[in-house]
Amino acid sequence: MTIKSLLMGAVATMALAPAAFAAAHEGERGRDGEVKIIYWQAPSIMTPYLSGGTKDLEAASLVIEPLGRYDQTGALVPYLATEIPTVENGGVSEDLKSITWKLKEGLLWSDGTPVTSADVKFTADYCMHPEGGCAQGAKFDGVESIDIIDDLTLTVNFSEAKPNPYGPFMGAQSPIIQAAQFADCLGAKAPECTEANFNPIGTGPFMVTDFRPNDVIQMEANPNYRDPNKPAFATLTFKGGGDAAAAGRAVMETGEYDYAWNMQLSPDVLAKMAEGGQGMPISAFGTLVERIEMNMTDPSPDLPEGERSTVAHPHPFLSDFNVRKALSMAIDRELLVEVGYGQAGRATCNLVPAPELYASDNTECLTQDLEGAMALLEESGWTDSDGDGVRDKDGEKLSMLFQTSTNAVRQDFQALIKDWWNQIGVEVELRNVDSSVFFGGDPGSPDTFQKFYADTEMYANNFDGTDPQAYLSQYRCGNEPKPSSQWQGENINRFCNEEYDALLDELSRTGELEKRGEIAKQLNNIITRDTMTIVPLVDRGRVSAASNTLGGVVLNTWDSELWNAADWYRIKE
After folding, report:
1. DSSP one-letter code for 113
2. Domain shared by 419 and 331, yes or no
3. Are 530 and 556 in the same domain?
4. Beta strands, E only, 22-172
5. Residue 245 in domain
6. CB atoms within 10 A of CB 498
7. Domain check: are 294 and 391 in the same one?
8. Which CATH number goes with the domain that contains 263?
9. Is 196 domain-assigned?
10. How far apart are CA 256 and CA 316, in angstroms?
11. What is the pTM of this model?
12. Domain total for the chain?
């Protein structure tokens, strides 16, 4: 059996499970005991507003929820809201400058108090606070004000027409937090609110009973969840740490856990694990791209905090476009796919690989060209003047630190890429950091991907929903992580380009879908092909693993992978 047929079969099985076992999973809340989830990247906080790490926002999605989500097809579906506002139903104004949301009646926080529109407005105030740093700030781009109409209704007003008004409060990256719990956590105080950040009061199917950062989270069913028959599980254990191989074995071979996230393993390893008979891999493609970020600023931690910029302190050699292009040309992306992902990966030159409307036809990077890369460096004056095998120019050597998180596939990628870069005369030091630290968002740690004290770094993330506007807006000038924002911010490589920002503004004003697609492609091409500040490698299919006894799982690449955990149940033999 090939990994492709294995994955296809698993997807079909999981999709049929809810219907096939419908009668068996009806009943009261908590009827199926415990469900156990393992993420080999351990959550370090329970709020996506203080961490851009996928493992943090997905753990938090079990507890705190948005007004609406994206389902497995990318369609918008209401969660805390009665419906998704549109121009047709009157929820979005004709001039596209406001969107009005209405909460469902009777919603309660897990502490039994009512959910109101004041909580929704507070969430925006929290993320948009001028003295704080919000990891999801791009979600609130263009929000001018929020008007509370009544306890269940509020209107979000934008400074300009917003053809895609579903940034705030949509998807796992923008959930609602309780105003009462976070009232004293605004601005610079946000990271200090340990109790709220570790144990948020929520509306989701589960609530935290014990949170151990970078280790394990214990949860129990929310007694005030809006559906009295859900969740089916009384308790949930969310184990973090280890590696993808151990997580996969724990589900597919030993059956110790019910669900394992992000099986970033080689295809033959996955197939072997599935022979264990306890579970199966499940897979779906979305917008998850493994890429290399080029640091556009001097990465030295010795610079005074806050002084890093492309103007005052440009990178000593990555500020040269030809160096960045040569580094990209040297990479064999097809080999990376073969080694790391097989049928669950596709070589790509795009940061936005889907949906088709927004995917550029940029394919130039797909052919490795070591000779061309060396010629380009030679033409640009980067030569090996002292014969030590490392190119130099004006006293500056092409010697770099390449970092990523600790992960078997990523370390394989690092080794291959280092060899290719060595072949073109670039000296490379490899560094890998525990994923809980690398993606943790701790403003006091020097090892986070936001601090980026390296020349290049490799990781993957994606955007929820099907519109890439907020995702592309991450690379706007001024959106870089910095001390004044508690090192939050999505412009990780400190890219700044006036043409890019102008196109972002145009995208925010454009409603016609085909035109939006054209602009998004231009933005993608600027940061990948035209400037190569981002070097895409692999369009990764999301591969996870589910126990054969876990029903109701629907893998979703457009939102949190745990988006429908309230519907999970134990399949009875």
Report:
1. P
2. yes
3. no
4. 34-39, 68-70, 76-78, 98-102, 143-150, 153-158
5. yes
6. 8
7. yes
8. 3.40.190.10
9. no
10. 50
11. 0.70
12. 2
Asked if residue 551 and residue 431 are part of one domain, the reply reads no
Phi then psi for residue 168, to 5 deg, are -65, 130
- Residues 330 and 458 reside in one and the same domain: yes
Domain extent for 218: 1-63+204-284+542-573
Cis, bond preceding 536 (omega within 30 deg of 0): no
Give the phi and the psi of residue 469 in degrees, each rounded to 5: -55, -50
Nearest to 206 by CA among 14, 52, 30, 43: 30
Write phi, then psi, for 8 (nearest 5 degrees): -60, -40
Residue 156 · residue 165 · CB < 8 Å = yes
Sign, CA dihedral 456-307-530-287, equals positive
Q: Is residue 155 a contact partner of residue 98, using CB atoms and an 8 Å limit? A: yes
DSSP string for residues in 447-504: TSTTT--SSEEEEEE--SSS--HHHHGGGSTT-S--GGGTT--S-TT----HHHHHHH
Place of tokens 């016609």: 512
Q: Kindly state the DSSP code that residue 419 receives in the 8-state scheme.
A: H
CATH number of the domain encompassing residue 385: 3.10.105.10
pLDDT by residue, tens only, the chain of 573 residues: 333 333 333 333 333 333 333 444 568 999 999 999 999 999 999 999 998 888 999 999 999 999 999 998 888 899 999 999 998 899 999 999 999 999 999 999 999 999 999 999 999 999 999 998 899 998 999 999 999 999 999 999 999 988 889 999 999 999 999 999 999 999 999 999 999 999 999 999 999 999 999 999 999 999 999 999 999 999 999 999 999 999 999 999 999 999 999 988 878 899 899 999 999 999 888 899 999 999 999 998 888 877 787 778 999 999 999 999 999 999 999 999 999 888 789 999 999 998 888 999 999 999 999 999 999 999 999 999 999 999 999 999 999 999 999 988 999 999 999 999 999 999 999 999 998 899 988 888 999 999 999 999 999 988 877 889 989 999 999 999 988 888 888 899 999 999 999 999 999 888 777 889 999 999 999 999 999 999 999 999 889 999 999 999 999 988 999 999 999 999 987
Beta bridge partners of 569: 551
Q: How many CA atoms lie within 13 A of 42 on its CB side?
A: 18
**Cα separations in angstroms, 145 against 98, 100, 395:** 10, 12, 52
- Listed in sequence order, the DSSP H helices in 129-284 are 179-182, 194-198, 244-252, 267-274
From 247, 336, 301, select the one nearest 483 (Cα to Cα).
301
Instruction: Give me the residue label for tokens 């412009």.
Output: 491
Same domain, 323 and 350: yes
Element (DSSP H or E) covering residue 293: strand 289-294
Query: 161: buried, middle or exposed (CB in 10 Å: 19+, 13-18, 0-12)?
Result: middle
Residue 91 lies in a domain: no
Residues 347 and 416 occupy one common structural domain:
yes
366 domain residue, yes or no: yes
Q: Do 357 and 335 fall within a single domain?
A: yes
